[in-house]
Design a protein that fits this description.
alpha/beta; Urease, subunit C, domain 1; TIM Barrel; 2 domains; six-stranded parallel β-sheet; five-stranded antiparallel β-sheet; 20 strands; 30% helix
Length: 448
């Protein structure tokens, strides 16, 4: 057993200093816990301790595309970033996680590589139509958190569904949670046709080829097919109008949405200077979009924040004069928590309760991992993210632990930093000592 002394935690709706007794689970939380012989003591001296943070949307590309990221580099970056659980997407690995057999092929490869705990997404793709009901239900019952669907896809191994397909899937699987990459393919194709090949090479034109209308059109059409029993989540929402449509639909349907640090901090006006370091799909939009999403974070209407972590080897994927050839994706899991607590907890004075909702609790609840993950309760996993609120962190992209050594936050000074990351009672990252657990320590967490 171990005791964490003098942890600044949220307790009874107030931030207070408490002690925590734990092994792999939380045993006791009290103002002062007596130290018995043979119990290791970790004194935080008032540092902030919150439920272990969750990054519920990452692409770690393992197996199959490990030149971009693998499960060891990805989960190492997560540990450095205070993330105790990641949820990996089904589409950027080979084979894609679209059936029970593929799930276990993936688990056989990644289980020996994980530093932190992980859950997995399943997926439904056009490649597998006509859809096999038993195949999908077997995968759902094996514990994936939900099923990812694309309305536009550049992946031959994970093709997009039509809106009619989506309507049929909703009717066929009312019990399953579906997550959508929502951009309308026809709007994007029509937008691209406006530009010459030379114009498409310019970074400032990228947002014009994937405009706000693409996101709002897809969101609107998906919502029009949602039934009373369906559960729908929209990933990486980047625009004001799409967020407003989702919030309006919450009055009738079980819908939720996430956004990412890039949409909360940058706009398309940053493309000429940041170029490939900011290129994602969907792209960052405009000042009104950024401001609206930041307000959603602050007022409680944004469900949670993820990274859509999708890095690559910078020299292979990001260094092109032709912006249309630049890889769509950035690493982010290492920086999300220090960014959010610097920008919103310390600077914008967002409450600690709200910050915990955004970084762990809401995602755990949405994906069936709560209270085992995302909470500080007796009997739950001893997963802790410990933040030094008085120690600034200057981002240097060359020090990132992903394969992708690039970030739009390069040379940004954040006001706080990760002190320790604790997973099931053991420190996996310490700011003084680095990574303290071997690959394979992280475990697969299935939806309850």
């Amino acid at each position: 057993m171990k005791i964490i002394k003098n942890a600044f935690i949220l307790k009874s709706k107030k931030a207070q200093v408490f002690d925590i007794l734990f092994d792999d689970k939380i045993i006791k939380i009290a103002k002062s816990i007596k130290v018995e012989p043979d119990i290791e003591v970790i004194d935080l001296h008032g540092k902030l301790l919150i439920p272990g943070c969750i990054d519920a949307h990452v692409h770690f590309n393992d197996p199959g595309f490990t030149d971009r990221e693998d499960f060891t580099t990805g989960t190492t970056a997560a540990a450095f970033g205070g993330i105790t659980t990641i949820i990996d997407m089904p589409c950027t690995s080979t084979p894609a996680v679209t059936n029970y057999e593929n799930l276990h092929k993936k688990l056989n490869v990644i289980s020996s590589k994980a530093i932190v705990d992980f859950a997995l997404w399943g997926g439904i793709r056009k490649n597998d139509f006509p859809i096999d009901y038993k195949m999908i239900m077997k995968l759902w019952q094996s514990g994936v958190v939900g099923f990812k669907i694309y309305t536009i896809s550049g992946m031959e191994t994970f093709t997009a569904l039509s809106y009619k397909d989506i309507e049929n899937v909703f009717k066929k699987f009312p019990e399953i949670l579906f997550a959508f990459h929502a951009e309308d393919e026809s709007v994007i194709n029509n937008s691209m046709n406006i530009f010459t090949n030379e114009q498409l090479k310019l970074p400032e034109n990228y947002v014009k080829t994937r405009p706000v209308k693409a996101e709002t059109t897809a969101v609107k059409k998906i919502i029009s097919s949602v039934g009373k029993k369906n559960k729908v989540h929209f990933v990486h929402i980047s625009s004001k109008n799409a967020a407003k449509l989702i919030l309006e639909s919450k009055e009738k349907f079980n819908v939720s949405f996430e956004s990412c640090p890039q949409y909360l901090q940058f706009t398309s006006s940053d493309f000429p200077s940041l170029k490939g370091k900011l290129k994602t799909a969907p792209p960052v939009k405009f000042e009104e979009d950024k401001d609206y999403l930041r307000n959603c974070l602050k007022n409680g209407t944004l469900d949670f924040v993820t990274t859509d972590h999708a890095g690559c080897d910078y020299k292979k994927g990001k260094v092109f004069d032709d912006f249309s050839k630049v890889y769509n994706g950035i690493p982010g899991t290492e920086l999300m928590i220090p960014y959010l607590f610097s920008e919103f907890y310390l600077k914008e004075k967002v409450s600690l309760k709200r910050m915990i909702e955004l970084t762990s609790e809401n995602a755990a609840k949405r994906y069936g991992l709560f209270p085992k993950k995302g909470s500080l309760q007796v009997g739950t996993d001893a997963d802790f993210t410990i933040i030094d609120l008085s120690k600034p962190y200057l981002v240097d992209e060359s020090d990132l632990h992903s394969i992708g050594k690039y970030s739009p936050f390069h040379e940004t000074e954040l006001a706080c930093s990760i002190d320790k990351t604790v997973v099931r009672g053991n420190i996996v990252f310490d700011t003084e000592k680095g990574i303290l657990q071997e690959p394979g320590y992280g475990k697969f967490i299935s939806r309850s």
